[in-house]
Specification:
about 375 residues; mainly alpha; Rhopdopsin 7-helix transmembrane proteins; 2 domains; two-stranded antiparallel sheet; about 5% strand
C-alpha cells in the first residue's frame, strides 16, 4: 500500500507496526488489506490477461477493441505489482524490495488511475460523437484503428507525465529494528528526522499540491467530460429503447470506476486539509487503507462486467469459449440515427455514388 506518512510522523508511536498481538486496528486492517490485495491480484491478472490476449491477439482490430485493450493493460500492470504490497502488509510495513521498486510501486498505481480514467473519457467522447453524428462517424474516416492507437498512446504519455512526481517523491530509509520504510519524501531530504521548519512547510505544500492535482486531473476533469458526454447520449437516446449492449457495458464500467475511486479521492482531500498525521490517526489507520483497497478492486472488475453484461455465463457454459463471450461484449453495434439531417446526408451520398457509377459506365461504353 502507498504510505502517505513518513517514519518521522510515527516516531513516537511505538505500537503502530510493532505490537502484533495487541489488537491494534492497524493489525486487522493489514490482514484485511492483504486478503483483498490477494483476491484482486488473482482475479485482475487472470481476467485482464484474458482480455489482453483476446483483444490484442485473437479478435479483429476495431476502435472498441483498442479502447478495451488499453483498459485491460492499465489494470493488468497494477494488479501485477500487488504481490509487493501484499508482502509489505504481511511484514507490517517493512519494504524488502529496494529503492527503485519502491518508486515504481508508487508510480504504477497512479499510472493505472490516469490511464483508466482518461481512456474512459475518450470512450465517452467517441460514443457521444457516434450518437450525435452517427453517419459522419461511420463515413468520415476519423474513427480508425490507427487513429485510436495514436490517441491511446497520447493517453499513456499523459498518464506517465502526471504520475512522474510519484516516482520522484517515493523514497526508502531504515526504520526501527532493521526495517525499511517505503514512503513519500515530499521534502526530498536525506535526514528526515532533522527537518527544518522551512522543509516541513515545503513538504506540506507539495503534499497538498499532489493531492489536489490528483483529484482534479485524475478524477474531476475526466469525469466532467464523461458526465457531459453521457448526458448528451441519454438525451439523444431517450426515445430509443435499444441503445445496444456495448453502450450498457461501458456505462456500467464508468459507474464502477466512479464508485471505487471517489471514496479514495475524498479521503485524500480530507487527509490533506488536516495534515500532518497527528490530526489524522483514525483517518490513517482506517480511511486510507480501506479506500485504497476499494480503488484497487476496480482493477479486477472490468473482465467480470464484460462477461456478466455480455450475457456470457450461459454462453461460456454452452460453448466453453471465453473468446466468443468477449467478442459479443466488444462487438461494435450500428449506432442509431438521431439527427433529422442524417437521412438527407445519406441520400446525397447515395446519389453521388450513383452518379459516379453512371459516369464510369458511360466512359466505358464510349471507349
Amino acid at each position: 500500500m502507498e504510505n502517505l506518512t513518513t517514519p518521522a510522523d510515527h516516531q513516537n508511536d511505538s505500537h503502530y507496526y510493532e505490537d502484533e498481538g495487541s489488537g491494534h486496528p492497524s493489525t486487522s486492517i493489514n490482514i484485511m488489506s492483504a486478503v483483498i490485495y490477494s483476491v484482486v491480484c488473482v482475479l485482475g491478472v487472470s481476467g485482464n490477461g484474458v482480455v489482453i490476449w483476446a483483444t490484442g491477439f485473437r479478435m479483429e482490430k476495431t476502435v472498441s477493441t483498442v479502447w478495451y485493450l488499453n483498459l485491460a493493460v492499465a489494470d493488468f500492470q497494477v494488479t501485477a505489482f500487488l504481490p509487493l504490497a501484499i508482502t509489505e502488509n504481511a511484514l507490517y510495513g517493512h519494504w524488502p524490495f529496494g529503492w527503485f521498486m519502491c518508486k515504481m510501486e508508487g508510480m504504477v498505481f497512479h499510472v493505472n488511475m490516469y490511464a483508466s480514467v482518461f481512456t474512459l473519457a475518450v470512450i465517452s467522447v467517441d460514443r457521444c460523437v457516434g450518437v450525435v453524428r452517427p453517419l459522419w462517424a461511420r463515413c468520415s474516416g476519423y474513427r480508425t484503428v490507427r487513429k485510436a492507437s495514436w490517441v491511446s498512446l497520447a493517453v499513456w504519455v499523459l498518464a506517465l507525465a502526471l504520475s512522474s512526481p510519484h516516482f520522484i517523491f517515493r523514497d526508502t530509509r531504515p526504520y526501527s529494528r532493521d526495517e525499511v520504510w517505503c514512503y513519500n519524501n515530499y521534502a526530498l531530504v536525506a535526514d528526515y528526522s532533522n527537518r527544518t521548519a522551512g522543509e516541513i512547510q515545503l513538504q506540506t505544500f507539495r503534499f497538498r499540491v499532489m493531492i489536489v492535482t490528483t483529484f482534479v486531473a485524475g478524477f474531476l476533469v475526466p469525469f466532467s467530460v464523461v458526465v457531459s458526454c453521457y448526458s448528451v447520449i441519454i438525451y439523444r437516446l431517450r426515445n430509443n429503447r435499444q441503445s445496444g449492449r456495448s453502450f450498457k457495458i461501458i456505462a456500467t464500467v464508468i459507474v464502477a470506476f466512479f464508485l471505487c475511486w471517489l471514496p479514495f479521492h475524498i479521503v485524500l482531500l480530507i487527509f490533506g486539509v488536516n495534515y500532518p498525521v497527528s490530526k489524522n490517526e483514525l483517518m490513517l489507520d482506517f480511511g486510507v487503507p480501506i479506500t485504497y483497497a476499494l480503488a484497487l478492486v476496480n482493477s479486477c472488475l472490468n473482465p467480470l462486467l464484460y462477461v456478466v453484461l455480455g450475457q456470457g455465463f450461459k454462453d461460456v457454459f454452452r460453448s466453453r469459449s471465453i473468446l466468443k463471450v468477449l467478442e459479443k461484449a466488444f462487438h461494435e453495434e450500428t449506432l442509431p440515427q438521431t439527427q433529422t439531417e442524417e437521412p438527407d446526408l445519406k441520400s446525397w451520398m447515395d446519389r453521388t455514388e450513383e452518379n459516379r457509377i453512371s459516369y464510369h459506365d458511360n466512359e466505358t461504353e464510349s471507349t
